[in-house]
Amino acid sequence: MSSPVARLLLLVVVEAHEYLSAPLSRTGSCLLNGVIMGSKICQTHTTPDTSDDVQCLDDKLTYSHLFHVHPAYENFACGGSTLVKGSRGGSQGLLQECGDLKSDPTHFNMSLPGPGEVATYKAGQEVELGLKGFFHQGVMRVSLCFYEDSACSSPSHFTSYVLGYHFSEGTSGDASAPEGIYSVVLGFKVRMPNRKGRAALQWLVDAEDVRSYVSCTTIEIIGATVESPQRSPSSAPLHGPRTDSYACNGHPLCNCTTTHEPTSPNVGLGLVCPQGTSPSVINGTSTGTDIVAQYKAQLGVDVFCGLCISNGCPSSCGGKYNGFYQGPKCTNAPVLKGCGATHETALPKYIECSAATCTSSGWSPSL
To answer: What's the pTM value of the predicted model, to 2 decimals?
Structure first.
């Protein structure tokens, strides 16, 4: 009978790797820039020299999938933590293959100029971000941190302008493609806030995996109709939305609470947050559930598929790519009616938010 460690290693023989491709992440096309969610760090082996730090899948702050980034990333919001350990020496292992803050500071220190060009967008512009790789089940988020406000080094710096969320399932490309299973390309539409200036754009994935994923890059927003909050005189008339406001894409996590259990029909936008309530793995052994099954139980498969990123939930919703961890395309019952070769998200359905009107982050799991 296999040991818990052996079971964990079997889980990662085929590794989901994913990154922000447009605008290109500071770590370029490097597939694996990981982070740890939760309050604890687990290891793949009991032997320190051959062990990797990984997420603890039975940690409630991990399996809730409410973006609780581990304290080892407190000063590494864009990855590259030097406080985690990999089996290949230093920080490199199952968590990181893109270097770290010590070896590649311009890739991870967002206060330094980055290695690539800075993409420019207009305030209020709808932008389709590009994502590439082989995707895991979980939930993803896009947010901004303005350099005028902070160094954009802490996860908490990316909670004031949350532009949207999407669910995903295990999604792979065709093994025969030039890039093999890592050839999936997904699009995530967001709307830029009515604020000018340079900002760090973060794509963060809270994945049901041995690690989660993050990509960051620097962008510039131009053409805002009001000044930034710090510079706007109290007597100045506003010619557009409040400068601390943002448009979120209408996913329930744009504005929800965790004061009650996430049971249907009380889960949704303005209601209880969809979240994990049970671990998928305990001591290396599958429990028979996963985060996708829990989301579908809380929301229903139709709503779940509407909140998935287009073509990113093939096992339940169909689409152009192959299902993976949740089974082949259209086999993860219950499935969307008419499940087949196409799938389009129902988002964005933009809502205007601010810190005073929306709870888009900072939740504790429901009791």
So the answer is: 0.92
